[in-house]
């Protein structure tokens, strides 16, 4: 039996899995200096000073010490 069909199936599943995981990510473009969300076109054009940020919002608000 040839190994080609199983190799093809494995490759297809790997590519499909990567595509699904990439679509599941929520990201937005931010201006580095201000951390303000801007239009995605800035990051798509690789404009200096802008970068993609994940949608997880792992930044926590700082609490004031009394």
Low-confidence stretches: none
* Helix vs. strand class: alpha+beta
Number of distinct helices: 2
Largest sheet: 3 strands, antiparallel
Question: What's the helix-strand series?
Answer: HEEHE
Shape: elongated
Radius of gyration: 20 Å
Query: Numbering strands along the chain, what is their spatial order in the largest sheet?
Result: 2-1-3
How far apart are the termini? 74 Å
Mean pLDDT: 76
Percentage of residues in strands: 15-25%
How many distinct beta strands? Answer: 3
Q: Helical content, roughly? A: 25-40%
Structure explained in plain terms:
By secondary structure, the chain is α+β, with helices and mostly antiparallel strands. The protein has a domain at 26-55. The chain contains two helices and three strands, in the order αββαβ. The chain has helices spanning 4-23, 40-44; strands at residues 27-31, 37-38, 50-54. Strand 1 (27-31) and strand 2 (37-38) form a beta hairpin. The radius of gyration is 20 Å and the shape is elongated.
Summary tags:
66 residues, alpha+beta, 3-stranded antiparallel beta sheet, elongated, 3 strands, 38% helix
Task: Give a quick summary of the entry.
This protein is an alpha+beta fold and 66 residues long. It has helices spanning 4-23, 40-44; strands at 27-31, 37-38, 50-54.
Topology:
Blueprint: H1 4-23, E1 27-31, E2 37-38, H2 40-44, E3 50-54
Antiparallel strand pairs: 1-2, 1-3
């Amino acid at each position: 039996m040839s190994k080609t069909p199983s190799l093809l199936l494995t490759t297809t599943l790997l590519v499909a899995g990567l595509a699904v995981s990439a679509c599941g990510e929520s990201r937005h473009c931010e201006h580095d200096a201000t951390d303000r969300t801007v239009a995605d076109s800035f990051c798509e054009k690789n404009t200096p000073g802008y970068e993609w940020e994940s949608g997880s919002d792992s930044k926590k608000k700082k609490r004031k010490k009394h």
